[in-house]
Amino acid sequence: MTDATPRPMARRFPVRLDIARGKVEMTHGGGGRAGAQLVEEIFFRHFGNAELAKAADQAQLSIAGGRIAVSTDSHVVSPLFFPGGDIGTLAVNGTVNDVAMAGAQPLWLTAGFILEEGFPLADLDRIAASMARAAAEAGVEIVTGDTKVVDRGKADGVFITTSGIGVIPEGVSLGAARIQAGDAIIVSGSMGDHGMAILSRRESIDFDSPVESDCAPLNGLVGVMLAVAPNLHALRDPTRGGLAAVLNELAHDSGTGMLIDEQAIPVSETVHAACELLGLDPVNIANEGKLVAFCPAAEADRLVAAMRTHPRGRDAAVIGHVTPGQAGLVRMRTRFGGERVVDWLNGEQLPRIC
Amino acid sequence: MKYVDEFRSETLARDLAATIAREADPGRSYAIMEFCGGHTHAIFRYGVQDLMPGNVSFVHGPGCPVCVLPIPRLDNAIEIAERHKAILLTYGDMMRVPASKRRSLLKAKAGGADVRMVYSVADALKVARANPERQVVFFAIGFETTTPPTAVALLTAEREGLANFSVFCNHVLTPSAMQQILDVPGQSIAIDAFLGPSHVSSVIGSAPYERFARDFHKPVVIAGFEPLDVMYSALMAIRQLNEGRAEVENQYTRVVTREGNLKAQAMVAEVFELRDSFEWRGLGAVPGSALRLRERFRAFDAETRFALTPSTGTDVKGCECPAILRGQKKPLDCKLFGTVCTPDNPVGSCMVSSEGACAAYWSYRRHQAGEHMPAEDEAFGEEAVA
Fold first, then answer.
1. A-B interface: how many C-beta pairs under 8 angstroms?
2. Is CATH 1.10.287.1080 the classification given to domain A176-341?
3. A252 closest CB neighbour out of B10, B363, B380
4. Are the C-beta atoms of residues B103 and B88 closer than 8 Å to each other?
5. Does domain A26-168 have CATH number 3.30.1330.10?
6. Hey, is B321 helix, strand or coil?
7. Over pLDDT 70: what percentage of chain A?
8. In chain B, which residues have their Cβ closer than 8 Å to the Cβ of A341?
C-alpha cells in the first residue's frame, strides 16, 4: 500500500535562496524560475495571504458596495534604512495613510518593486519583513505585486511603488472643498520627525541623539476621529513639504485663508534643536505618521480629546483656524508676537525623503 | 529650548517694544540698516517690524553672501563644473542663483555637470580624498565668518598634499562693503544707523567699524541674530541717535569682543591676501573688498588651475537687486517682484537665499503687500509649482 501514499511533490526550488549572502541578479527579473523563487521565498513568505498565494496576474476582491478610495505612491528614500523605519514601512504606511485621509478603511495594497542588480537579498528580506509588520499593524493585505530588476547603477538599491484600496464608510465625505472659515486646524502630533530622521542619517550630518521617524499607519486614529466627529471636513497627511505645504495647498484649493499659532504647533525638543542648527523650519519638514484635520470649531475640543486617547494622536493640538478672505494665504502668529506668512518651501530642502 | 527660547521671549519683546515706542522721538524717523542677511531673516521670520513704532524702519543691507556674488563669478563656477568636468562643491543656496542666460548650478547639474551640495568645507575635503582621479573644487563664498574654515581646508590640503583639491575663492570683506554704502560723494545717505554684523564680528572684532562711526557719524551697534538681539540693538541705536552720539556699541557681548578671534585672523592672514578690487552685485567694483589665495597656495587656486573665460554677464533688465542691496530700494519697488521673480523662479539673487531681502519679503510679508502682489493664479502658476 505504500504506493497509495502520495509522494511529496518535488520542491519547486530544490536549492533555497541564499538570503544571508545572496544578491539580486538580472535573472531574478527575467520572468523565469529565479524570479518566481525570489517572489515566493521572500515576498510570499512575508506577505502570505490567500489572495496573494493564488499567484494570479491579478487579485480578485469583494466589496460590499459604496465608495472606494484608491491611492498610489512611489518610494525612493535614501538611505533605505533610517531610525524608526525603512523603505518598507514607508511604502506601506505612506499609501495606507493616503487612503485613510479620505476617511476610508484601507484594506488592500499592491506592491511593485524595482530592484538594482547586486542588491543584497538580506536587505530585501528585511524590507519585506518590515512591510509585512506594517501591513499587519494597519490591518491591510498585500494582495498582488510585481518585481523588476535593472542593471547595477540604474536604480538605488530598491524602489517600491504601492497602491492602496480602501472603503469609505457611508456618510463620510472629506475634502478641501468642505473646509470653511471658522474651522479649527488640528495636528495629531509633533512636526518634522520623519524628515529630520532622514536628514540625520545623510552623509555629513550626525546627531548625538538621533530623531526617530514617526512613520506609522493613521487609519486607526482616523477611525477614532470619525466616531466622535462625523462632521469632519478634511484630513491630510503632511508628508513632503511638511505642514506648510499642506496648509498652502488646502488654503489654495478651498479658497480660504489660514492663521496658525507657532506656539501651539507641537515640535519635539530634538527636532527643534536640529532645525536651529541647520537653519530649517519644522513646518517645512516631512512627517510620515501625522495628520492635519479641519473640523467645525465647536467640535474641536471633543475631537482633540478623542485623538489623545489613541497612541498616534497623543500630542494632538489645535494650532489655528481657517479665516475668511486672503484666500490661499497662510499666516502664522510667531512665538515672538509678530506675524508672518507661512510659505511653501522654496526649492528643494531635501530630496528623496520618502 | 535652552539658550534659544530666552532670546525669543514674547514677554520681553513686548517690554522692549514699549520702551522703543516710548523713547523713539515722534518728531523724526529712524532708518536703521541691518547689515546682515541673518538680521533680515530674523526681522521677517519673527515679525519684528510689527513690534516697532511706525517711524522706526529697517533698511536691508548687503550682508547676504549669495546675493552679492556677481553673475560673472557664477558663470565661471558653472564653467568649472561643465567645461572642466570638475566636481564642484557648494553651499545649498548657491545652487539656485541665476547666472547668465537664466542658467544656474542647479540647471548645470540637471544637464550632467557634477555639482554637489555640502554643509561645510570639511565635506569638500572628504570628497576630494574619495575621488583622487577627479578635480574637486570648493566654491568658496561668504564674508569673514566662512573664511577661516576655508583657510583651515587649504592648510589641510597643503599638509596632506591633496593635489586634486582647489578653491574657487569668492570671500568678501564686510568693512569695505559698508564703506562703499556710506562713501557716495554728492549723495545724502538715507541711513541713520547700522546694526553691525554678529558672526562676522566674532571673527574680526568690533574695532574695524570704529572708523565708520567716527568718519561718517553713524552709530554702529553690533547685533546678535535672535529677534530680541535685533530689537535691543535697535533701541541702542535709537538712544545714540537721540543723544547725538555715533559710536560702536556691542550688544552681542556673549560672542563678540573688540579684538575678535585672533587665531582665526592669523590663519586667514596666512592663507589669503587682499585683491586689488572685486566686483559686487549691487555695489559694483569695490577696492580691497575681497580675498584671494596667497602665492604659497596658488597650486590650490581654481582660478590658476583652470583657464576661465571672462564673462560679461549682467543682471536682468528691470531687476532692482543692485539698489535693494545698497538699501536704496525695497523689494516692493521692483516691477519683477512677485510677477516674474519668485523664490521658485528667481530672476535676481535677492530672491534666492532666505537671507535675501526679496525672498524674505515674499516668504514672510506678502500679506501686507496689498495690491502690489500678483493675483493668486499668477503667483502659483504652473512654472512656480513645477
1. 81
2. no
3. B380
4. no
5. yes
6. helix
7. 93
8. 363-367
